[in-house]
Amino acid sequence: MHSATTGNYRTKIHNPIPTRSLENSDPVSHHRPQFLHLPLLKRCTHLIHLKQIHAQIIKTTGSSHQTDNLLAKLVFSLLGSSQMDYARRVFEEMSEPSTFVFNTMARANALHGSRKHAIELYIQMRSRGLEPDNFTFPILLKACENVNQGKGVHSLILKGEGFASDIYSQTALVHFYSSHGDLECARLVFDKMAERNVVSWTAMITCYMKQKKYNEGLALFHQMQIAGVEINELTLVNVLSACAHLGAFEMGKWVHGYIDQNQIFLNSTLATALIDMYVKCGYINEASQVFEKLPERSVCSWNSIIGGFAMHGDGDEALERFKDMVASGTRPDHITFIGVLSACNHSRLVDKGREYFNSMKRVYELEPNIKHYGCLVDLLGKSGQLDEAYKVIKEMPMEPNGVLWGALLNACRANANVELAEIAMEQLVELEPFNDGNYVLMSNIYAAQLQWNNVAKVRRFMKERLILKTPGGSSIEIGNTVHQFMAGDCRHPNSKEIYSMLDDVSERLKTVGFVPRTSQALLDANEEEKRRALCHHSEKLAIAFGLIRTVPGTPIRVLKNLRACSDCHLATKLISKIYGREIIVRDRNRFHHFKDGACSCNDCW
Q1: Residue 361's CB: how many other CB atoms inside 10 A?
Q2: Angle of helix 249-261 relative to helix 233-246, nearest 10 degrees?
Q3: pLDDT-based confidence at 33, cuts 50/70/90?
C-alpha cells in the first residue's frame, strides 16, 4: 500500500475504512466495543461499512442498554447518509430507544420523509414514558403542515415543564408562525419570551420581511441594536432586503460599513443582498463597486449586477457583464436570462433580444419559461412590432398569463393601437378581473384617441365592479428618514412648504410650455380639477420635498409604487432641467434617470 505522502495514494484508496473485514480488524474489539465503533462511524462513507459496524455491534456488545447506545449512533450516521429505510429498521431493533433517537428519527421524517410519521413518533415516545427535551418541540413544529397543528404543539410547549421559557422552543414557534404567515401569533410569542438571542430576534425580523412590513422590521432591528444583541449574517440579509424595498439607502450604507468593520465574509447570499440594496436604492455605481471587489462570484451575484444594470436602463453594460459571466465559466440560469432580456428591453436592443432568447435552448439547454416570453413580448411591443409580439403570444407552448397580455396592452398604448388593445383587454378581464392598472391603461388608450364614450364605459365598468384605482405612493429618504407620500397627501408636517414649492414648480413649468396631460387623471371631474389632481401626484410631492430639503445641485431619489404616468414623466424631465437636478425615480418596472430635460428610458417605458 502506498504511504500518505505518495502521489498516487489518494487515487488508489477510495475509502477511509480498511477493506478487510471489520470484525477481524482489532484483536481486542470484544473488550472495548464502544471505543472501536464510534471512531469508525465518524469515518464511514459507504453503506457496506455501516452494515459491517451494525453486525459488529450486535456481536460484540453486552447489555441491551450498551447496544441501544451504539445503535443510536448508527441511526444518526445512517440518516446522515440518507439511508432512511435502513435507519428505520435499526431503530425498530432497539429495545429501549432514548429521546435522542426518537428526536433523530422524527427530524429526518419531518425534513425528508413523512411529516405524519414524525408526529406519530412523538406520540410513540410519550407512550413509552419518555420526556421531551429542548430539541423535541422544534422538531415537532417542522412536522406541522398547518397553523392548527402548530397551535397544538404550542399548547404542549406551554403545558410542558420548563418549555414555556425555553429559548429553543419559543424561537421555533416564532419561526413556525412566520413561515405560515401568522405575524400576530409570531409577535405574541416573541414579546413573551423571557430570553432572546440573535436567532429569535432574526426570526421575528424575518417574519416582518415575509409579510412585507419593512418599516416594522427595521424598527425591530433598531430595538435589537439597543438590546446589544449580536448581529449575524441572516439579520443583515433581512435588513438589506428591507432597505432595498424602502429605498432606505443610509441604513443600507450603515450595514455595508458594519460588514467592512467586522470583516464579515461576503458570501453569495450577503453579497447579492448588498448589491440588490444599492441597485434598488438607485446607486448602480456603488453596486458595481461591491461586485468588482467580491472574492468569489456566484451565479446569484452575477444575476444581481446584470439585472441591476438592466433595471437602470444601461443595457450595453448589462450585456457586457453577461459576456464576462460566460467567460468566467459561470453557467447562466433562467434568472440570468430574465436580466439579459430585460436589458435588451429597456435599451430597445430588439435583434440582440431575439438572439439571446433563441440561445437559451440552443446554446445553454434552458427551456424559456413564461417570464422569458413576457420579456420578449414586451421588447417587441415597445419597439413597435406589435404583430410579431401578438404572434409570439398565440404560438408560445404554454397558456399566456396576465403579465403577457398586460405587456401587449402597454405596447398598444405606446403605439396607439386601439384594436389590438381591446383584444388584450378582453383576455385581461378574464385573467385579472380586479387589476385596476389594466383598466386605467385601457382608459388612457381611449383618451389618447379622444374616444371619450369608451373612456366613460371603462370607468362605469370599474364602478359597477367596485374596482378602485390604487392610490399612488412615493417615498424619499432625507437625513436617514424615509418620508412617504400619497396622491394629494396633506399629512406631512411640512405640507405647507411642500405645496408652496409645488406652486413654484407649476409656475416654472408653465413658462416652458408644459401642459398637463389630463387624460392621465381617471376622475369624474372637470379639467381644472384634473390638473390639480395631476399636480398633486405622489412623486411630485416627493420631488418637491426633495427640492426643499436637499442641497441644490445634488441628486433627488424617489421610489414609486406604480408605473410612472406620462404627465409626471414629462413634468419630471422638465423639472430636472429647470432646477438643475438629476432626479432618479424607481417606478414599479424600472429606474428613470432624469437629467437636463431627458430620461434614460428614452420616453418608452
Answers
A1: 11
A2: 160
A3: very low
Q: Residue 562: name the closest of 453, 486, 472, 451 by CA.
A: 472
Beta carbons of 465 and 237 less than 8 angstroms apart = no
- Rounded to whole angstroms, the Cα distance separating 328 from 354 reads 24
Task: Please give the Cα distance from 401 to 435 (Å, whole number).
Answer: 13
Q: What CA–CA distance (Å, rounded) separates 129 from 279?
A: 57
Residue 394 within a domain: no
Q: 332 burial class (0-12, 13-18, 19+ CB within 10 angstroms)? A: buried
**Residue 474, H or E segment:** strand 473-478
Q: How confident is the model at residue 593 (pLDDT cuts 50, 70, 90)?
A: very high
Q: Are residues 243 and 252 in contact, defined by beta-carbon separation less than 8 angstroms?
A: yes
State the chain's mean pLDDT as an integer: 85
Cα separation of 303 and 280, whole Å?
Answer: 14
HEC sequence for 118-172: HHHHHHHHHHCCCCCCCCHHHHHHHHCCCHHHHHHHHHHHHHCCCHHHCHHHHHH
Dihedral (C-alpha) 237, 239, 245, 247: value to the nearest 10 degrees? -120
Q: 474-525 pLDDT, tens per residue?
A: 999 998 788 999 988 889 999 999 999 999 999 999 999 888 766 555 444 4
Residue 205 grid cell: 425580523
- Give SS3 for 557: strand
Q: Is residue 533 part of a domain?
A: yes
How many structural domains are present in the chain?
1
Written as one string, the DSSP assignment of 321-372 is HHHHHHHTTPPP-HHHHHHHHHHHHHTT-HHHHHHHHHHHHHHH-----HHH
Is 566 domain-assigned? yes
pLDDT at 604: 74
Q: For residue range 331-347, list pLDDT tens digits in order.
A: 999 999 999 999 998 88
Instruction: Identify which of 283, 356, 358 has the alpha carbon closest to the alpha carbon of residue 315.
Output: 356
**Using an 8 Å Cβ cutoff, are 434 and 467 in contact?**
yes
Neighbours of 4 (CB within 10 A): 7
pLDDT tens column, 109-159: 888 868 888 899 899 899 888 989 889 999 999 999 889 999 999 999 988
**Domain containing 589: what range?**
474-599
Cα separation, 500 vs 61, in Å, equals: 89
**Is beta strand 583-586 parallel, antiparallel or unpaired with respect to 556-560?**
parallel
pLDDT digits (tens, 9 = 90+) for 340-369: 999 998 888 999 999 999 999 999 999 999
**Distance between alpha carbon 372 and the CA centroid of its chain, in Å?**
19
Overall residue count recorded for the chain in this entry:
605
580 domain-assigned: yes
pLDDT in tens, 415-433: 889 999 999 999 999 999 9
pLDDT attached to residue 206: 92
Transcribe 319-335 into DSSP letters: HHHHHHHHHTTPPP-HH
Question: Cell numbers at residue 93, please?
Answer: 431493533
Q: Average of pLDDT values for 441-449?
A: 89
Q: Give Cβ neighbours of residue 488 (< 8 Å, ≥ 6 apart).
A: 533, 536
Task: Please say whether the beta carbons of 594 and 583 come within 8 A.
Answer: yes
Give the largest CA-CA distance in the chain: 101
